[in-house]
Target: enoyl-[acyl-carrier-protein] reductase
Amino acid sequence: MTVQGSAVTFTEYSADIPKIVHSTDFTIDPNAIKEDQILIKALATPINPADLMQLRGGYNDAPDIQLGTEPNDKPLHVGGNDGVFKVVKAGSGSKASKYKEGDLVIPKLPAFGTWRTYAIAGADDVINVNGLTVEQAATISVNPATAYQLLHNYVSDWKEGDYVIQNSGTSQVSRYVSQIAKLDGVKTISVVRDGKSQEEIDELKKFGAEHVISHSEFNDEKFDITKYTKGAPVRLAFNGSGDSTVAHLVKSLSQKGQLLSYGFLGGAEIKYSAVDQFAKDLVTRRYWLTANTYADPEGKVDTIKRLVELYSSGKIKDVPYNKVHYKQGGNEEISKVFLEGLANFKNGKGKQVLFYD
Model:
């Protein structure tokens, strides 16, 4: 029996995303998959800012993807870089035989094209994440992985009481940073936009933030970080937005501290004091999960394995997000449901994850 699937596809890049995305239906014959392949069914796939940048072009360009067991009528890109799938059938080869029906898996590499109801994957192209809930597995590949690598790829000798400081303090990445840092006794200072309610601030502290500081307080020229750190070293600063706080992140770093920029939604220019950099022997560098994963795929696998352990042992917990639902064979096209999630994201409703019912 064949499997009928649907995907969010595009053939050109543009900032006008509603104009370029379409729904494409396809057919998979499970008996036609190769011995080293597995057939997987989508359970939940996020809509990340990096995914939208990919659609605009020039960022992690999407490859052409064959959707079904027969070639597409024309070359197609499929959106989405992460998500969780369930194994439906495994090929007869030795590599595929390590998977069984019902296993939860996530793509190993970016640009997999996760916004589709079914996919054929190489046995070496996915990571087994059994032991997680679907909600955890859906987002583990990007935000928790980014937080883990930010904390562990650049400092290997954390000491109890060390600090990290981060802007984009309400983001998903920042909430995972706070949780994971706390496991090593590292304290987190999260900088947030003005106007956050006490309830929102308290929630960040529940996720492990030691201190939460508003933009206006942090950007004041008289601001002194030692008010919060009491002289403890601030070893890393995480820039997720490229906004006006960057100069003060650098200013807050201690001797031989590092600024790691992993996002630039607030702008493309990063400005900070050369005097501070020179006097403190500071390092400023970019962090890009996609590039890291392509350069060191097994490093990504190790990161995911460690995160699975942390989730399974209850040492970290899910960060809430908004769910949008697509029903295969229903009245709505998959691209329409995707655009609903995109609208929610643009209207400030937080991270969106497409669930397949």
In short: The two ends are 20 Å apart (CA to CA). The mean pLDDT is 95.
